[in-house]
Amino acid sequence: MASTHGAEVLVASNRGPVSYQMLDDGSLRAKRGGGGLVSGLSAIGPDTDAVWVCAALGDGDRAAVRRAGAGLLPAEETGGQRVRMLDIDATVHAEAYNGIANSVLWFVHHLLYQTPLEPVFDAEFRRRWASYEAYNQAFAEALAEEAAEGAAVLIQDYHLALAPRMLRRLRPDLRIGHFSHTPWAPPDYFRLLPDDIAAELLTGILGADRAAFLTRRWADAFRDCCHAVLGPGIPSGTRIGVHGLGADADFLRERAHEPDVDERMAALREEIGEGRKAIVRVDRTELSKNIVRGLLAYQQLLEDHPEWRERVVHVAFAYPSRQDLAVYRDYTAEVRRVADEINTEYGTAGWTPVVLHVKDDFARSLAAYRLADVALVNPIRDGMNLVAKEIPVVSDEGCALVLSREAGAYEELGEEAIVVNPYDITGTAQALHQALTLPDGERAERSKRLAAAATALPPARWFLDQLHALDEHAPGGQSS
Known about the structure:
- This protein is of the alpha/beta class.
- It is built from 18 helices and 15 strands.
- The chain has a 7-stranded parallel beta sheet, sandwiched between helices. A 6-stranded parallel beta sheet has the order 12-11-10-13-14-15, sandwiched between helices. Strands 2-3 form a two-stranded antiparallel sheet.
- The longest helix has 24 residues, at 123-146.
């Protein structure tokens, strides 16, 4: 079943390195993306035959796939990468992506359910689960078709938890890795899932030679779930690995000093006001990011320490996420409501306590990074959280980091951060006060050490480490 293309390295992920927009005249505009996978895949060098398999996410993507005849997309549109985009039925994709991956698996791994009312695993859930299985099967079949004999396949994240086992059945010769970018739930919470579904998710990932995670904590939780659900040991022989993902320092520092960032800095300085300190957060309005409690902690700071009134501004970038789900729309609305409440209660003619932006703007985010005196990163739970790593790298004068102990980044940055329990509003307010009152010298030194830790494992090394670890294993999970 091996492809005539014979790719030696394959990556599989829901979102690919390119997306397409349908223009009014019917033509397509390609937009290339960035991120750790793009940086990592480029690190293997142009001589390595590699293919990226991803899903078509919208009408523009689907039109591009049909134009390409369901084959590889044109290289001039993908930055030279060989990309196979799958035109999975739109309903199947929506049920797999929103109905299962984002509404069930994300909630389980981030401990987000309000358990008196949810989850409810009924007939509708089972129907959506069938779509999730079909979605994973489509990826497994495409990977099997594109891979050369003995190729290395790196399957990404919770969207594709079943694909390793499915691919193993089709192509036992392949070296397969699975990487989880999310946290992994502890056994008691993971077992909210129906028993058969919990087992299917675990055995799906255990179809890989290697299952890898961002931190030791998440890897241990996965192993614990395997023991609790499947019984002691890992009978498949799958190896469990850890690969932390760091910030891309060279890219960030160069991009943060381009003219459009300087323009955004000037505008932000005007919004903040002369001589004031800035507490910065940059997040999607994702439920796990804990933006509302961060705002409430800032409100508590202003109440407990009135000396900070008119001397500090909370610059909060909350970029809308998953707005096709009602719970996310409601959460975004609550972020706006609390920000407005703080500004109404404490604002004056010359001071707006919360500067809230909801339109995604990467240049403006980098400008805020450079201006930050304090970075607030307080997720309920996070696989890693790259913002916690990026702000210290880019900050002009050095910043203090207030960091949730539930972020994966805590393992690497906790020693130099001011650590908080993300549910503790009073404690987070106290941490903000401590961060604001750090002497300039201490803040700068902490920021340097944070930046060093944050860039220790750049995306290229993160990717290559996974690839090299697969080289150590023969197919089927046995040691070479």
